[in-house]
C-alpha cells in the first residue's frame, strides 16, 4: 500500500539491521513503551534481526492491560444496573475482573455493547433517552481527545443520560516509574508515536535529562522501529541522552494544540492505579469539576470490595519489562487468549497475547543467543 510498503521493505529493513550490528559494541537494554510497537516487534521477529548485545523489553503501553482490576469490577457492576447500556471497545469485554468479565455479564443479560468511538456511545444516548448510557473510557493520550470531545458535546447538548467511566492513563509518569524502580534495567526508550501526535514530546526532555536516558519517538512499522533502535544505540554508544523524533511524518515537537486544549478543558491530571503495578502519582486523567455530572463513578456511587489479582499472573512484572511472558508458569497453559488470567493475554497490544499468537518461546531466545555466539 502506498505510504506503508516503504516502511516494510525487506531490503531496507536488512540494511538498517546491518547498521545496528555495525554500531553496537556493548550490551544495551531498550524498552518500547507502546503495545502496538510490541505487536509489530513480536509478529515480524525484529528482535531476531538485532545483534545479541541489544535486548528489547516490553513496557506498560497497552491501555487494556493496565486498567486496574477494581475498575473492571466497577464497569461490571455498572453494567448490571437496571436501564444501563454500558459501551466499550471490544478488547475490554474479555479482560478478567476479580470474578468475571464484561463478556460474562453480557451473557447473563447485561446490556453491554461494543462501540468503535465514544461518539457512538453518544449517539446511543440520543437514541435511548430513557436509558443510562455509560462509556468505559480507557487509553493513553491517544484516545483522550475523542473522549473529551464526547463529554464536551454531551454537555453542550444537555444529554443527562450519558456518562463516562474514566480510566485514562499517561505515558511519561509510567516511564518515570519504570526508571525509578531499583530493579529496572532499561537504558533507553522507544516512545509511543501516536501519543506524541497529541502531546508532542517536550515533556520527555526533562525525563531524558533527569535519568540520563535517550528517548526516541518512534512509529509502528518495522523500519520505524529499527531506525528508532539505531538512533538509541548511537546515543548510548556515544554517551549522549537526548530526545529525538524518528516519527517526523506524524509527530511535531509541540503536538496538536487543538486536541490538547479540548483535553485540558474537560480533564485534569490525577493519581491513577495501574494494573499489576500499583498507584503512580499524576499518571491519569479524571473529569474536571465542571463536567463531574458526566462522571459515572460519581453518578452511580457503587461500593466494591477490594479486588486482588490472580496469584499466578505476573502481568505487573511483564509490564515493567522485568520478565518475559514465557517466564510465567501459566503462559500458554492455564492462561490463553480464550481463558486469560491477566489482561496482557487479552488485548492485541498485550505482550502475552503477542507471544502466544506468534509462537515466541524461551527456547527461541536461547537458540538465538547460541547462534549469535557461534557466529
Number of strands: 11
In CATH, the homologous superfamily of the domain at 64-170 and 255-300 goes by the name HypD, alpha/beta domain 2
Strand-and-helix sequence, N→C?
A: HEHEHHEHEHEHEHEHHEHEHEEHHHH
* Cα Rg: 21 Å
Q: What fraction, in percent, of the residue positions are helical?
A: 40-55%
CATH topology of the domain at 64-170 and 255-300: Rossmann fold
Q: Give the strand line-up of the largest sheet.
A: 4-3-5-6-11-10
Based on the coordinates given, report the CATH architecture of the domain at 64-170 and 255-300: 3-Layer(aba) Sandwich
The residue ranges in which pLDDT falls below 50 over 5 or more consecutive positions are: 367-375
User: What is the global morphology?
Assistant: globular
Average pLDDT across residues?
A: 91
Instruction: Give the strand content.
Output: 15-25%
Amino acid at each position: 500500500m502506498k505510504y506503508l510498503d516503504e516502511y516494510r521493505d525487506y531490503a531496507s529493513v536488512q540494511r538498517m539491521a546491518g547498521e545496528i550490528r555495525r554500531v553496537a559494541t556493548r550490551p544495551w537494554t531498550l524498552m518500547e513503551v507502546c503495545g502496538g510497537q510490541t505487536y509489530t516487534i513480536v509478529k515480524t521477529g525484529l528482535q531476531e534481526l538485532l545483534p545479541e548485545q541489544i535486548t528489547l523489553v516490553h513496557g506498560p503501553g497497552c491501555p487494556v492491560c493496565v486498567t486496574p482490576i477494581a475498575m473492571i469490577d466497577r464497569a461490571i457492576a455498572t453494567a448490571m444496573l437496571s436501564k444501563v447500556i454500558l459501551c466499550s471497545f471490544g478488547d475490554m469485554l474479555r479482560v478478567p475482573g476479580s470474578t468475571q468479565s464484561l463478556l460474562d455479564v453480557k451473557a447473563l443479560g447485561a446490556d453491554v455493547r461494543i462501540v468503535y468511538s465514544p461518539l457512538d456511545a453518544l449517539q446511543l444516548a440520543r437514541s435511548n433517552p430513557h436509558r443510562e448510557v455509560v462509556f468505559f473510557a480507557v487509553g493513553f493520550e491517544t484516545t483522550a481527545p475523542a473522549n473529551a470531545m464526547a463529554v464536551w458535546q454531551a454537555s453542550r447538548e444537555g444529554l443527562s443520560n450519558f456518562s463516562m467511566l474514566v480510566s485514562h492513563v499517561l505515558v511519561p509518569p509510567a516511564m518515570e516509574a519504570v526508571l525509578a524502580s531499583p530493579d529496572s534495567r532499561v537504558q533507553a526508550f522507544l516512545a509511543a508515536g501516536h501519543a506524541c501526535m497529541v502531546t508532542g514530546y517536550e515533556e520527555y526532555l526533562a525525563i531524558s535529562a533527569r535519568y540520563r536516558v535517550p528517548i526516541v519517538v518512534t512509529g509502528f512499522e518495522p523500519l520505524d522501529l529499527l531506525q528508532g533502535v539505531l538512533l538509541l544505540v548511537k546515543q548510548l554508544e556515544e554517551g549522549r541522552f537526548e530526545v529525538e523524533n524518528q516519527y517526523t511524518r506524524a509527530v511535531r515537537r509541540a503536538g496538536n494544540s487543538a486536541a490538547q486544549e479540548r483535553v485540558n478543558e474537560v480533564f485534569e491530571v490525577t493519581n491513577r492505579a495501574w494494573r499489576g503495578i500499583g498507584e503512580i502519582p499524576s499518571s491519569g486523567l479524571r473529569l474536571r469539576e465542571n463536567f463531574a455530572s458526566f462522571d459515572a463513578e460519581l453518578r452511580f456511587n457503587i461500593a466494591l470490595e477490594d479486588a486482588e489479582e490472580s496469584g499466578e499472573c505476573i502481568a505487573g512484572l511483564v509490564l515493567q519489562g522485568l520478565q518475559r511472558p514465557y517466564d510465567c508458569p501459566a503462559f500458554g497453559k492455564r492462561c490463553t487468549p480464550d481463558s486469560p488470567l491477566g489482561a496482557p493475554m487479552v488485548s492485541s497490544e498485550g505482550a502475552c497475547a503477542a507471544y502466544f499468537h506468534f509462537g515466541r518461546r524461551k527456547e527461541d531466545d536461547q537458540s538465538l543467543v547460541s547462534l549469535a555466539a557461534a557466529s
